[in-house]
Amino acid sequence: MSERCAECNFDWGTSTLEGLRIIDRLPRKAREVVEEMGSAAYHRSDPAVWSPNEYVWHLADTFRLAAEWLHDMRTREHPTHYAVDNDALAAVRGYDQLPVELGLWSLDQSCDLFISEAGRTDPARTCFYDGWRDVNAGEVVSFLTHEAAHHLKDLERLRERDEVSHVQ
């Protein structure tokens, strides 16, 4: 039995192929959720929680950066990967000011780029994840599959909160 994420129920035993299918469906599913929200996609339910639009932009940047990560692993021998401060990136990019429609397009493009790079990278290729340990490309796909599943669940929760607030 494999482990599951307590928040989103992601199964860490998900195969690489199924993970890539999940990632491939992410842009369409995110679009369905976010478009139903209309202007509420720009609303933060809490100052400490990103808006749906900000989650879309986070996902778009995350998958683009992860495609670069895989490319680096594929083309260089055991490189070092440096994590990004997601909140700093959100501030620098101005996620809260960017249009959600552009973010959805960017998410579609970055997921395609990630899937393309994952398909060309030997899952056994490794890098050193700075401050942590060696990881292989198969694990990177798993990390990003979790990212897709987890944040899609976040978007769905935010949509449900928005629906509840309209009912009350």
Give me some keywords for this one.
168 residues; mainly alpha; Four Helix Bundle (Hemerythrin (Met), subunit A); three-stranded mixed β-sheet; 3 strands; globular
3D architecture notes:
The protein is mainly alpha-helical and 168 residues long. It is 63% helix and 6% strand. A three-stranded mixed beta sheet has the order 1-2-3. β2 (126-129) and β3 (133-136) form a beta hairpin. α1 (16-37) packs parallel to α5 (137-167), α2 (52-75) packs parallel to α4 (100-120) and α2 (52-75) packs antiparallel against α5 (137-167). The longest helix is centred in the last third of the chain and has 31 residues, at 137-167. The mean pLDDT is 95.
Question: What is the topology?
Answer:
Blueprint (H helix, E strand, L loop, with lengths): L15 H22 L14 H24 L4 E2 L4 H8 L6 H21 L5 E4 L3 E4 H31 L1
Parallel strand pairs: 1-2
Antiparallel strand pairs: 2-3
Helix pairs in contact: 1-4, 1-5, 2-4, 2-5
Brief sketch in words of this structure:
With 168 residues, the chain is mainly alpha-helical. The chain has one domain: Up-down Bundle (Four Helix Bundle (Hemerythrin (Met), subunit A)). The chain contains five helices and three strands.
